[in-house]
From TrEMBL:
Belongs to the PanB family. Keywords: Cytoplasm, Magnesium, Metal-binding, Pantothenate biosynthesis, Transferase. GO terms for molecular function: 3-methyl-2-oxobutanoate hydroxymethyltransferase activity. This is 3-methyl-2-oxobutanoate hydroxymethyltransferase. Binds 1 Mg(2+) ion per subunit. It catalyses: (6R)-5,10-methylene-5,6,7,8-tetrahydrofolate + 3-methyl-2-oxobutanoate + H2O = 2-dehydropantoate + (6S)-5,6,7,8-tetrahydrofolate. 3-methyl-2-oxobutanoate binds at residues 49-50, 88, 118. It comes from the Bacteria. It comes from Kaistia dalseonensis. It is found in: Cytoplasm. Its cofactor is Mg(2+). The gene is panB. The lineage of its organism: Bacteria, Pseudomonadati, Pseudomonadota, Alphaproteobacteria, Hyphomicrobiales. Pathway: Cofactor biosynthesis; (R)-pantothenate biosynthesis; (R)-pantoate from 3-methyl-2-oxobutanoate: step 1/2.
């Protein structure tokens, strides 16, 4: 009898230990099938609340619910076996108090089996990060451009452009690192400030629209695959899937209309 050793998933502790080492690779996924494809290439998969915009066509991430995150988090856990899975806490599920955040995060971890949660905010969320980290919940922070705050930020605005904003980004990064976050996403921050943040904190920074000097990088999968109609400047398209899908669907539609699909190979015959 041969017994295969189970595949050990990457943990939040493994990611924390990668500070200053080989770059950490990450992508978003919201589905079992894309999670299965990306699993062996990435260190962690983020079930981002960007799913509201990417999957559901919402204008912002604000309407995303805890139930949506749990459903897709579960799908990604089913599809993957190697990468750490981090699930976003959606707007309204954690800001009110550390206790509310703990309840939401514990639900996400129990109901999906994921290895960590992510929450937006710096200085203002530090107490909550500490509360969760001290109670067994690995927390990834998210600073700089925090899309859940779009209504108070006045849009998707790049951060750190002047001295005051740069100091605020740096203070946010230091506050959540000190509070016990194991890593942080640095989004939409001017390059020198993102680099300074990376040098200033003892935990890995994961850049998106930030700096090549961050300890890792993340992109939204559909953006880098060329499936999203509009993408920000920081996205590099590594594929053109929208065109491939159009081609395939157009061939299928032509063949159905011409009755050339299904062919004899695609139908079940009666055996004599
Ligand atoms: O929700 C998301 O996909 C994110 C990434 C853009 C970092 O937070």
């Amino acid at each position: 009898m041969s017994v295969q050793a189970p595949v050990r998933r990457v943990t939040a502790i493994d990611i924390r230990a990668r500070k200053g080492g080989a770059p950490i690779v990450s992508l978003t996924s919201y589905h079992a099938h894309t999670a299965a494809i990306i699993d062996r290439f990435v260190d962690f998969i983020l079930v981002g609340d960007s799913l509201g915009m990417v999957m559901h066509g919402l204008e912002t991430t604000v309407p995303v619910t805890l139930e949506m995150m749990i459903l897709q988090g579960l799908a990604v856990m089913r599809g993957s076996s190697h990468a750490l899975v981090v699930v976003d806490l959606p707007f309204g599920s954690y800001e009110e108090s550390p206790a509310a955040a703990f309840r939401s995060a514990a639900r996400v971890m129990k109901e999906t089996g994921c290895g960590a949660v992510k929450m937006e905010g710096g200085v203002r969320m530090a107490e909550t990060v500490r509360f969760l980290a001290e109670r067994g919940i690995p927390v990834m922070g998210h600073i700089g451009l925090t899309p859940q705050s779009i209504n108070t930020m006045g849009g998707f605005k790049v951060q750190g452009k002047n001295d005051e904003s740069a100091a605020a980004v740096l203070a946010d990064a230091k506050a959540i690192a000190e509070a016990g976050a194991f890593a942080m996403v640095v989004e939409g921050v001017v390059e020198p400030v993102a680099r300074a943040v990376t040098q200033a904190v003892p935990i890995p920074t994961i850049g998106i629209g930030a700096s090549p000097d961050c300890d890792g990088q993340i992109l939204v999968l559909e953006d880098m695959l060329g499936l999203s109609p509009r993408v920000p400047k920081f996205v590099k398209r590594y594929g053109s899937l929208a065109g491939l899908i159009e081609e395939a669907v157009s061939s299928y539609a032509d063949e159905v209309r011409a009755r050339t699909f299904p062919t004899p190979e695609n139908v079940y015959k009666v055996k004599n």
